[in-house]
Write a structure and sequence with these properties.
single chain, 206 residues, 26% helix
């Protein structure tokens, strides 16, 4: 059935608990804002200075304590679908925001795969500059968010959450990428793109 456009929010406790001060009072910001990545883990798409590459996710500034209760077992035959309306030019930004919200809600970095139907995500371009062997080794390790072009979907392992940034025309290749992403998502498929063509693709059936 066609997807129904939703507000750009992540379902799985994405908002997380409000930050509180040491005295128990609610902090002034309306919700926790992801802090800047350290030099060991630059913000995706904004690599730090120099050729240094991200360190293992143990240094990612996302604490493991105080996380929400774990989600129900993710053995459903079909993932939950969510559409975040975005233009082709804004799809990458929407995908990055979805990643941040998922991490803030307690999702493990290794749970998340981000695909682009158009140009590569800047993080992927940066990592590929160190060579394909090192790039794909990170995917095999499976312990951090991984960004890839949809054209490489056949090489990708399934992950609980797959985010697709529809940052190009919704042509036959993009439609196939959406179908592949749906098969790769264990629990949640998030599509950032123009609702009309995306709904048309899924309305045609998998």
């Amino acid at each position: 059935m066609p997807l129904i456009p939703e507000e750009p929010q992540i379902h799985e406790s994405a908002q997380g608990p409000r930050a509180t001060s040491a005295t128990g009072r609610t902090a002034s910001t309306p919700r926790p804002v992801p802090g800047p990545r350290t030099a060991a883990m630059p913000r995706p798409g904004r690599p730090g200075p120099g050729p240094a590459r991200p360190a293992p996710p143990a240094q990612r500034p996302h604490p493991t304590s105080g996380r929400p209760q774990a989600a129900p077992p993710e053995n459903r035959s079909s993932p939950q679908l969510q559409l975040i309306p975005a233009s082709a030019d804004g799809a990458l930004v929407a995908a990055d925001e979805a990643v941040d919200l998922l991490l803030d809600s307690g999702r493990a970095p290794g749970d998340i795969l981000v695909l682009t139907t158009g140009e590569q995500h800047p993080w992927a371009t940066h990592e590929l500059s160190f060579g394909e062997a090192a790039y794909w080794a990170q995917h095999e390790a499976g312990d951090d968010v991984f960004f890839a072009g949809a054209a490489a979907a056949d090489r990708l392992k399934s992950r609980p959450v797959v985010i697709v940034a529809v940052n190009g025309a919704v042509d036959d290749a993009a439609a196939q990428a959406l179908f592949t992403a749906k098969r790769s998502a264990g629990a949640l498929l998030i599509v950032c793109g123009d609702p009309q063509p995306v709904n048309a693709v899924f309305g045609a059936g998998v």
